[in-house]
Amino acid sequence: MRTLWTAVIAIVAATLTSGPTAAQELKGKALLAALKTGGHVIYFRHFETGADFADQVTADIENCWSQRNVNAQGLRDAQRIGRFLYDQKVPIGRVLASPFCRTRHSADLAFGRYERIDGLKILPSKDYTPEQNAAMKAAMMPFVVPPADGKNTVIMAHDDNLVAAGGPLLDVQGEAAVLKPDGKGGFTVVGRLKPDQWRLLTSK
Known about the structure:
Blueprint lengths: L1 H22 L4 H10 L3 E5 L26 H16 L4 E6 L3 H11 L3 E2 L13 H11 L11 E6 L1 H6 L11 E6 L5 E7 L11
Parallel strand pairs: 1-4, 2-3, 2-4
Antiparallel strand pairs: 1-5, 5-6
Helix pairs in contact: 3-4
């Protein structure tokens, strides 16, 4: 009997942890086709800065010299990915950026424009409290809505904001999660792309 219950519990646990997000993720040409239809939010973690540390604790948000900034690799990645999306005719609508210099520069390098959204900033703490995570989620979610006119919204921000909103941890700088807003205050993750994976969308 114990063995039977152990098996049942394991099956239930696996069902709960798999969830709909993983089952609906797209890859390759299927993901590119979805992006071309619009209606998504492409959430980027800012492009490469080199060292990764919590500069938000002491940074002056108006002073780039007090912050981590996009390096040469980040510049190349941003321009390459922006060019790829342009060449593939992926429709881009609003481009929203956190007020940190690295996010604004990433957006400008990739898309040539951005709207500064102060609510997308990360908070001056190394370890976020539940209240801080709730605040970051509340500030971000108004922008995770179905874009108008068949376009895609770009959000250029930080891994912390997306995690606070219940999304995945973006492992590397420049990684993106493609979100499908449900129009009811939630979203599904339909794809994830590291900086060197965009080119694969046309070959698989």
